Amino acid sequence: MLREALEFLVSPCCRRELSLAAGPGKSSDIDVDEGTLTCPCGRIYPIVHGIPVLIREETLSDPVFENNRKTWNALWKKTRDMASTFFTSGEMFRYDFQCDNSIATGAVVFEAGVGQGKYVSYLRDASPAWLIGVDAAEYLHEIWDNLKSGPRFSCKICLVRADLNDLPIRSGKFDYVIASRVLHHLPRMDKSLSDLLSLLKPKGKMLAVVYAAGGSFRHVIDAVERIKKILNVLCSLDQMYVISFFVSAVIYAVILLFYVPLGRFLSVRRLLPLGDVMLFWKKIGFRGFWKYIVFDILVAPETRYTVEEDLKKILSNLPVSRRSYRRQHEAMWSIELER
Ligand SMILES: C[S@@+](CC[C@H](N)C(=O)[O-])C[C@H]1O[C@@H](n2cnc3c(N)ncnc32)[C@H](O)[C@@H]1O
Ligand SMILES: [Zn+2]
Question: The pTM is what?
Answer without folding.
Answer: 0.95
